[in-house]
Amino acid sequence: MKLKGDQSTARAMNRRLILNLLRQEGPRSRADIASVTGLSPAAVTFVVADLIDEGLLIEGKTVAGSAGRRPIPVDINYANGLAIGFKLMVGSVECVVTDLATNPLGSMRLPLAGHDPDHIVTTLAEAVPELASLVDRPGARLAGIGISMPGVIDNHKAVCIRSHRYNWDNVPLGGMLAERVKVPVWLEDDTNAYAIAQQLFGLGRQHRNMAVLAIGVGIGCALVFEGKLYRGANGAAGKFGHVSYVENGRLCECGKRGCLMAYYAEPAILNTWRDATGRGKGAGRPELLAALKAGEPQALAVLEEAGNGIGRHLANLVNITDPEVIVVGGEAVSFGDALFGPLRRALEKNTFRAPPPVLPDWEDNSWARGAAALVTQKIFDFETSAGNAAPSPDQGTGRERRPPLS
Ligand SMILES: [Zn+2]
């Protein structure tokens, strides 16, 4: 979608300032917006009128109070559109349709027969009308589609530069799907998309510096510095699973040896546990969870080792980047304290200062919602950052209506 105005112009900056204030704090009157942002009342009136014209803002109801007629609040028009999020996994796609605050309105999971780009584009294109039919919102238009997948992504061009898991090089997935469905499509690394959603509407909302750790089929991290997602020079920042854990150790999917994820991504954890207990290939996460619940010593030992191994490296990351919080997501979150206990102890032991809080995200569909957040972020011109409109701590509670998380 083309955004109005040059991003660098004062007008574009004012738009972003106002939209981010309303995202963080809920409905506000024009006078309120002016006093919090420091913009002139005339500038606020002008920008708000523009945003209402575009359907991005909506006027609330005037509340008659004892002090007479009170000013009309304006709010972000989250109901104005729908977003679709696709999270591509190894054998399936998690699909979600949300409003523009990424609240899920419908979801489904589709199997993937393979990783051929044309097959995937067809699968996604056919899912679009099906997802739209799950939602009963006459008049709401599909604002866009976000796709998240593991890999090195050029998010400006919506091209997957390299994905080890899909064995892709330079696949213009975003453009291929947009061609079929005729709506804007955005593509992002899955952990980055997840971090954007956490920053806009989730556990990272009040933090300008945060790390997001994902432990699932791989191990990844996303870094938000001063409110901006840090992508690195080549879009390859945050490949935390590929830090060297054992010199010349196990072969990793990236072709190198001894990477952290070759030991402690979920498939590796399950393998180690099966080897330790003589269980067959059929024993997966549910069986390991049952073993943990039953207090099986081997299961606890495997998670202890994983938590400790990941935690030690996470401590290095903390020592280098100094995040306010670490949000953790991914399938391995379900291992709970068996994993997080040793992970927190390893952090405690190895960080230079007291470690930041580790916040597991228990929401089921946060990952697909992360993909949908790519749409919201672009449509509303949100920064991942709190921007200049960061509320002071005493403004953070009470009056605002935040889009609910589920
Ligand atoms: Zn690797």
Can you put this structure into words, describing what you see?
- This protein is α+β, with helices and mostly antiparallel strands.
- The chain has three domains: 67 residues, Winged helix-like DNA-binding domain superfamily/Winged helix DNA-binding domain (Arc Repressor Mutant, subunit A, Orthogonal Bundle); 133 residues, ATPase, nucleotide binding domain (Nucleotidyltransferase, domain 5); 155 residues, Nucleotidyltransferase, domain 5 (2-Layer Sandwich), CATH 3.30.420.
- 37% of the residues lie in helices and 21% in strands.
- It contains twelve helices and 18 strands.
- β15 and β16 form a beta hairpin.
- α1 crosses α3 and α2 crosses α3.
- The longest helix is centred in the C-terminal third of the chain and has 25 residues.
- The two termini are 27 Å apart.
- The relative contact order is 0.14.
- Zinc ion (ZN) binds next to loops.
Blueprint of the fold:
Elements lengths: L9 H16 L2 E2 H8 L3 H13 L3 E3 L4 E2 L2 E2 L3 E4 L4 E8 L3 E8 L4 E8 L5 H16 L8 E9 L2 E3 L4 E5 L4 E4 L1 H9 L3 E5 H12 L8 E6 L3 E7 L2 E3 L30 H4 L1 H12 L7 H9 L3 H25 L3 E5 L7 H14 L7 E3 L5 H14 L27
Parallel strand pairs: 6-9, 9-13, 14-17, 17-18
Antiparallel strand pairs: 1-5, 2-5, 3-4, 6-7, 7-8, 10-11, 11-12, 14-15, 15-16
The structure holds zinc ion.
